[in-house]
Structure formats: structure tokens, C-alpha cells
Amino acid sequence: MTEIPRNAVQRTAKLASLPIGVAGRVVGGWGKRLIGQSAEEVSSQLNAKTAEQLFAVLGQLKGGAMKFGQALSVFEAAVPDELAAPYRDALTKLQAAAPPLEARSVHRVLAEQLGASWAKRFQEFDDRPAAAASIGQVHRAIWHDGREVAVKVQYPGADEALLSDLKQLQRFSRLFQALVPGAEIKPLLAELRERMVEELDYRTEAANQRTFAKAFDGDDHVLVPKVVASAPMVIVSEWVTGTPLASIIRDGDQATRDHAGTLLSEFHFSSPARTGLLHADPHPGNFMLLPDGRLCVIDFGAAARLPDGLPRTLGLMTRLSLEHRSEELLELLKEEHFVRPDSEVAPDDAVAYLGPFVEPLRAERFKFTRKWLQQQAERIGDLRGQDFRTGRSLNLPPQYLLIHRVTMGATGILCQLGAEVPARAIVSRWQPGFG
Hints:
- Helix 12 (254-275) packs parallel to helix 19 (423-430).
- This protein is an alpha+beta fold.
- It has helices at residues 8-16, 20-34, 48-61, 63-73, 81-93, 103-114, 158-169, 173-179, 185-199, 202-215, 245-251, 254-275, 312-322, 326-335, 347-354, 370-381, 386-393, 398-417, 423-430; strands spanning 122-132, 136-143, 148-154, 222-223, 227-231, 234-238, 243-244, 277-279, 287-289, 295-297, 303-305, 366-367, 420-421.
- Strands 1-2-3-6-5 form a 5-stranded antiparallel β-sheet, sandwiched between helices. The protein has a 4-stranded mixed β-sheet with strand order 4-10-9-7.
């Protein structure tokens, strides 16, 4: 392909080609499962062709459609295993693959962004993309000084495609809610819209990456590639070779899973204090495990600005919930507008709702599993349960939305890994208000 399909009608038609009929049956089946019917009463056979079509449509469209698919992929761990199998591979593919852009289009963007003599800035440039993502693809090259570099080139038309996709995806939110019941789709779409407008200017991404690279320079556990050059639609950074987390999720041994999960958790909680930023694109395609044991982190287009680090309120809420201090917890929730103004929540119900989410902090180490995450998704989604009613009375203030999404995304990765992590020690060290 030469560029992202821009025509809104064309993109809407492709999105509409997703199998709504099958999705409707899935909605019904999962709905029955979530309100207590046994797995035997619910059809566990999902159409694998549907999954492949999902991947094909979102991948070919790139833009907001693919970015949305990548965001969904980390939530697949919340889906019951007997239902998720046909979709797991299709969603995971979106983390690192998409149909590539033709070389002549890549060259045109490079000439526009780096100048007509762009080729002289490289000793070598591989026209074959090493990776293709939502709004750009990456090429391997050798910079003029001999350094091996990754050249990220934005797709022509990405700006129009992003806004068009996110508008149209709202129409299909029920379909995606069915595929991934652990995700809140409409707020996710709204938040993605805000973040992706920022991501269109690679100079912002380069600035974020430079901040992270400086803060983690020489770190024993995390490597952030240094930026070599940048322009609005091109970013050049040091090339790094490692094992993607998707590969470790698929076939890594337990020791490697635990190690990767621990490094990911440490990075997530420590970054705001060390950089004033939170890496806000948590999916396995953005993390690699290096031969020396370090975690390599890439793609800094989406970042939350937290100049004072993680909010102290979150640490206090976690501590109060962990210690079953229900009256104090409810008072804090009301003060910080986590309870809807027109709702009433009993103190014990607030603790009961949040308690299972802080379970990983009750012991020195906790093993994150798909089963645990599935239990949380079913618990808060059970229409007959008190937790569902409590959840309807709670509110997520806008300033916490991105932090919540990133934390849930990171938790989803930990559950995909099946990693055992010293979560309590990490949170105690880096989360203000918890210690």
C-alpha cells in the first residue's frame, strides 16, 4: 500500500464489514456467562474466521483502528479461556504487525522530513520494514557515523485516519465490548483520541524518549534507546535487538516470565518519580528483554505528564482498601470525586469492591494469572452482584483516567505472562501515600 486509506466512507465500510451477527451471539453468550450461567450453558465455540477478519480489517486500516486493536490486546487476559482462544492470536498480532507501506512512499516522507539528500545521512537503509504499527513503520538502517539505528516513518494520511477511525469506532463499541469484557470501551476510545492527536507529531515523542533515556541512562534494569534525529513525521533512534514480550508470553519459561514481569512493574511505578512522565502505551510490542537481562522500552508517543509523580491519593486508597478501613476509604473516595454525586455507597461495599484489586499487595510475592483477572472481570460484571451495583455508583475522575488505563494495561501484560512479582515491595517504594 502507498498510504493509509483516508476516505471516511471507505474506512467506515471496512469497519462495518466486521461480523456484527457473530458479535451479537458473542454478546449474548458472554452476557449469560457473566450473570452466572455455567460454561456448559453458553456456547464456547467462537468462529476463528471472525478473529482473522478482525485482525485483517484493523491491521489494513492502520491508524486509529489498529491503535485501538493494540490497546484491546492487553485485555484479552480477562476473557475466559474457553471463549478467548480463537481471538487471542488475532489480537496479539496487532501488537507488532501490519501490511507494510511501499518503499517509494517511505522515501517521499523521508525527503519531506529530512531533506532531499536524506539518503546521505545514512550509510545503509533497508527499504523492507522491520516492524509496522498503527501510525508508522520502522526500518533498520546505519547512520552516517556507523551507528545502527531504527527509523520510524509515519504513514501519509495518518492524521485524517486517526480522527475518522475513532469517530466511527464509537458506533461499534458494543462489538468490541463483547470481545474484551475487561475493558471499558467508550472511555478508552475517548482517551485514545486525546493521546493520538499528540502522537502525530514525532517531535513530542522524541522529547519524551530523550527524557526517559536520560533518566534511565546506565540503569541496571531498563534501557531506553537514545534519539539520534527527529522531525514531525520521522524519528531516528538507536537500534536494539531483544526478545519481544509477546514471544515470552507465548513460550518463555517461568523464570523469564517472572523476571520480565518484575522489570515491567518496576518501570511502570518508578517512571513518574524518575522522569515526571508515565509511559502510556502498555502493550507487549513495546517491550523487549535484552540478552543482558535488561528490559528495553520503546514507543514514547503516548505519555502522561506527572511532574509530581504518581498521585498520593491512589496510594492512600490502596492502603485503606488493603487494611479494610472502610469509613476512611469512603470519605477519601467522596473527597476525590470517585463517587458519583447522585449515588450512595456503603463503606463496606466500597472495600468489598476494591479489595480484590489490591490482592497482589497482601503478600511479598503475587502470581498474576489470566484466571485471577478473569475472576475480577466476572465479579464486577455480574449483573446480579453487589459489586456490579457498587461499580455503577463509582466514578473515575478525568485526571486519573490515563493512569488507570495504563495500570490496567500493565496488569493485563503481567497476567498474560503469568508472572510472579514482588508487587508489594515495588509499590511500597514508588507509590506515594502507600508506605
